[in-house]
Design a protein that fits this description.
This protein is of the alpha+beta class. It is built from eight helices and 25 strands. Helix 5 runs parallel beside helix 6 and helix 6 packs across helix 7.
Length: 442
């Protein structure tokens, strides 16, 4: 008989995030997923039932399963990103329940940055609103390959098919313009459980999957080995002991690709070359290693290598640059202005930098670019040009989410200012011709 542990070890893992406007029902959907898939411990459910009864509610408020902060429960909103882990017989899940309030849009960037799927909720009574567009834009910028539009609260519009069809068509058109490769629309009622885990008897006009069925069957790829190898150095190991007097190893996690002993490599940004003499894994030396393994590399030549350097195969090494053009999601309360001195953190390397230009800011209503806004404020999405004090081995974000992303940091207090994605903004969208008007929309 197969044990639960053995069964889970053979299933795939899906990382996904939920997003939507305030009161669209994200936390209730997550609670319903956990409850109906039997992923809630008995004592957790009892605690939720007890709190719900104290509030005078007849049924358990499943949103309380994810809204863990006291302020969240008092206000009935999600503030922080809540991570939940659950599993079914078919797949394991890591879920990031992200806030819906405009003030906390920055937290969606955190939750969706590693997601392979995003569930965007829409209240069937309100349809696609500005925050819906913002979440779709963030998902597109972060290159999330699968987007689910969950049209929630269908019970409050009498489960009307035309309402769902209209919202699905509007959102799909907008997301397609952003370059989102796949949108799956599902009509649901998170509160009543319609089409979340079990099919709804109220919407016989809908023949698609439930939310859980789609999550269990959507194709996901964790094949980081298809990308060129990238190895950011985290730590230099020099024991200088009697047992290992000459050992020099470079420890880190392989960000992408495959590394082999005997392979010619280049160390960036210095450009020095060598050959991989050995790869030490947890269980001892190996001839080959791949992402996302953590290993220690030994090179044939003694080269000045330190934390922040990048080791890559010489045949596919990235070009270093000090001029970074990227799209950023501004996440700090303080504005980002032209001339601002910042720190740029890329993989394990942090360098000084200056914001040379802010060419445009995205206008969400029609996806045009507002030219030369002068600054970016909290939750803005815009293009920036940054000049770094030292060269960076930066890939395009379209080629590698790991080595094409970076953070801009305030050098004074360490506050994260913006999350950046190098290269072209949207997947299948050329840069828009900017318009000279006052198209401020948020």
């Amino acid at each position: 008989m197969t044990s639960t542990t053995e069964q889970l070890s053979t299933t795939t893992l899906l990382r996904f995030a939920t997003a939507g406007s305030v009161d669209d029902g994200k936390s209730t959907l997550v609670g319903r997923l956990l409850h109906d898939s039997k992923s809630v411990l008995e004592d957790q459910l009892e605690a939720v039932e007890r709190v719900s009864q104290d509030r005078g509610q007849e049924a358990p408020d499943l949103a309380l399963l994810t809204d863990g902060l006291r302020a969240e429960r008092e206000q009935g909103i999600t503030i922080d990103v809540a991570y939940r882990y659950f599993a079914t017989a078919r797949r394991r899940f890591i879920l990031a329940d992200t806030p819906g309030h405009v003030q906390y849009t920055r937290n969606m960037v955190t939750g969706a940055s590693t997601a392979e799927l995003a569930v965007v909720l829409v209240d069937a009574r309100n349809g696609v609103v500005e925050q819906t567009r913002r979440h779709a834009a963030v998902a597109a910028l972060l290159r999330v390959p699968h987007v689910v539009l969950a049209v929630n609260k269908m019970d409050l519009v009498d489960y009307a098919e035309p309402v769902f069809a209209s919202i699905a068509a509007e959102f799909t058109e907008y997301a397609t313009e952003l370059g989102v490769p796949e949108v799956t629309a599902i009509p649901i009622s998170a509160l009543a459980g319609d089409n979340v885990v079990e099919p709804s008897s109220h919407m016989d006009w809908y023949g698609g999957p439930t939310v859980l069925e789609h999550l269990e069957t959507v194709p996901v790829s964790h094949d980081l080995t298809a990308c060129p190898a990238r190895f950011p150095v985290q730590y230099v190991i020099r024991p200088q002991s009697a047992e290992h007097p000459d050992y020099r190893g470079y420890a880190g996690q392989i960000a992408s690709g495959v590394l082999r002993t005997g392979e010619a490599v280049t160390v960036l940004p210095s450009g020095r070359t060598s050959v991989i003499e050995g790869i030490d894994a947890l269980d001892g030396p190996v001839d080959i290693a791949w992402a996302p393994q953590s290993v220690t590399l030994r090179l044939k030549d003694d080269i000045d290598i330190s934390r922040g350097d990048l080791i890559a195969p010489s045949a596919s090494a990235p070009v270093t640059t000090q001029d970074v053009t990227a799209t950023v999601c501004h996440v700090a309360d303080q504005p980002l202005t032209v001339g601002a001195r910042v720190l740029l953190k890329h993989t394990t390397r942090t360098v000084k930098a200056i914001v040379k230009e802010i060419p445009s800011r995205l206008t969400l209503d029609d996806l045009s670019q507002h030219p030369q806004p002068g600054l970016l404020v909290a939750n803005d999405i815009g293009r920036v040009v940054v000049r770094t004090a030292e060269p960076l081995a930066l890939d395009a974000y379209a080629d590698s989410r790991r080595t094409g992303s970076f953070l801009l940091i305030d050098p004074a207090d360490g506050t994260t200012l913006a999350a950046g994605m190098a290269g072209t903004a949207f997947a299948a969208r050329a840069e828009e011709t900017v318009r000279d008007d006052e198209g401020w929309d948020f």
